[in-house]
Amino acid sequence: MEIAQVVGLALMVTIFLLILRQEKPVMAVLLSMVFSILIFILMMGKMASIISVMQELTRRAGINFFFMTTILKILGVAYLGEFAAVICQDAGEQAVAKKVEFASKIIIAVLALPIMVAILESLLELMPG
């Protein structure tokens, strides 16, 4: 699905949401969630293409695939955390959205820890004495 189709679908869903929010707010939240999940599923193919290209570039460059895998996991956590937080905000649950954002940040920090350790170890090896 290209951007024009995404924008067109988003505009139609937005109009439906404006109407539904006045009459049936619960249905508006459900429609928003369905739209979000639909867009996420439709973009999975494009994300798979990005991952495939990154894997090939990593292999050709001779870079340790552990680092690229970790970076891709971090990106995944960031996107999924943002996705879930926005859905919670759409449902009017800002407190839950903030908790999802907090958890995502902690998970990202934990995932990044091995990369930070590797960088610090490399720096220590370069330092004299």
Tell me what you see in this structure:
By secondary structure, the protein is an all-alpha fold. The protein folds into 2 domains: 1-62; 64-129. It is built from 4 helices and no strands. The chain has helices spanning 3-23, 25-61, 65-90, 94-126. α1 (3-23) packs antiparallel against α2 and α2 (25-61) packs antiparallel against α3. The radius of gyration is 20 Å and the shape is elongated. The model has no long low-confidence stretch (mean pLDDT 91).
Mean pLDDT: 91
What would you call the shape? elongated
The gyration radius over C-alpha positions equals 20 Å
Number of E-type strands: 0
What structural class do you assign from the helix and strand content? mainly alpha
What portion of the residues fall into strands of 2 or more residues?
under 5%
**Helix-strand string:** HHHH
**How far from one another are the termini?**
57 Å
Count of alpha/pi helices: 4
Largest sheet: none
**Percent of residues in helical segments?**
over 70%
- Return the domain count: 2
Sequence stretches where pLDDT stays below 50 over 5 or more residues: none
Pfam family, one: SpoIIIAC
Transmembrane segments: 31-53, 65-86, 106-124
Protein name: Stage III sporulation protein AD
Keywords: Membrane, Transmembrane, Transmembrane helix
